[in-house]
Design brief:
Aspartate Aminotransferase, domain 1; Aspartate Aminotransferase, domain 2; 16 helices; binds pyridoxal-5'-phosphate; PyrdxlP-dep_Trfase_small; PLP-dependent aminotransferase family protein; aminotransferase; transcription; transcription regulation
Amino acid sequence: MKVEWQPDKQGNTPVYQQIAQWLERQIIQGDLPPGASLPAERALAQRLGVNRGTVSAAYEELRAAGLLQSWQGSGTWVSRHLWGVQRVPNWHKYTNGGAFLPAYPLVKRIQEACFDPSIVNLAKAELATPLIPTFQPQELQELLQSQLQLGYIHPKGDPGLREVLSRHLRDQYGIAASPEEILVTSGAQQALHLISLCLLSPGDAVAMEGPSYSYSLPLFTSAGLRLYRLSMDEEGIVPGDIRRLHQENKLRMVFVNPTYHNPTGLVMSESRRREVLDLCMELRIPLVEDDAYGALAMKGSRKPPQPIKAMDSSGAVLYVNSVSKTIAPGLRIGWLVGPRSVVERLADAKQQMDFGTSSVSQQLARRFLESDRWRAQMERLATYLCTQREAMLTALDLHLSDCAEWKVPEGSYHVWCRLREPVGERQLLDAAILEGVVFTPGSVYGAEEGWMRLTYSWEAPDAIGDGIRRLKKALLEIGGR
Ligand SMILES: Cc1ncc(COP(=O)(O)O)c(C=O)c1O
């Protein structure tokens, strides 16, 4: 039972009615399911700071409505038989059931804080609004009048967009893929979801980097998969781990995020990419390459190697990417590249799920990718990310150099930072939010305590500095150095 609520004693509604309405809301929402015991009248009266008679009157009102039952000496409980006069379903049971697991509580806490604009946001992996390209009204008008199809679209995605993607993949990433080998998805996330639901079965063993973004997604465990960690060194995942895990658990798939890995920022070396691909081919294990951040090299930094998919002549790699980190996450345009049979199978499933990604978004993404705006946007981002990273590194040097260490990222949005003396991360997150800053604790990605992902893509440089200062304050408050 929720107890933070208090009646408004100065309000116009009698207090006993307020209590009755409060309890009724909890019954309807399923927080108080059928059969749930209510506190004794005296105890509840004490908690709410009212007379026992007031609670008695509230209980009586709900009994009269058929929502509560009680017997002398046995207490009061939510009616088991009637579902009250309102005949509400037991939502509590439903919301705790279903195949899809809820997000981790820590992730929910961060998401809540991310929606509070007064909190400095070092968790949101999104470009600041001015970096999102705009479309001219005239251009949109033209789209609506001439080209835009608003009917259901081909199950694999708009043919025009897939043509453009095929050229884009060849020119920007060195990947050879015909439009028939491309599936347009609602972000990279849907591609990962489709893979876990349609190509794998409950109980299958899959391996992924530890830590990793994929680990933060309950969608893999919701699909009943067994997750195994691949350790990483300076060059990326350690191939020997794949062989060992395969011998022990018969791996069915390997997931990697080799370029600007989320959260560590690591770039897998070219030779390691080759080694991982060769090993997966030898063991006949499909490799999923998530390249969501791959295009985000910073100005003045080394260019990362080409994606593993560019080396894959046999079709062992399923390549996943999107426009979320480069253009706009709200478009929800992503894609999967793989053998035709796989793309067809996943297209069929996607069709059953949502009848395709919005045609408006597909047309906008197509316009953007086929024009020279893509190149201009990438140049702009290379400079932007460099400035943002400098603001973050300056603030870290100033406030956290006595207690933490980090590596300088060469691309993407995040600094992966380790506190030399780990502190309770839930405690640190709560203290940080109270201080007005939110970050992502490493355990969200399956890291040990003490790691943090600090994101510099969203806030302005001054705010980044202020956020790190607040984080240091929170650390001191909870007794960290
Ligand atoms: C590594 C990685 N892959 C995939 C995604 C999903 O991105 P989207 O579905 O917006 O394309 C994210 C989002 O943060 C990510 O960090």
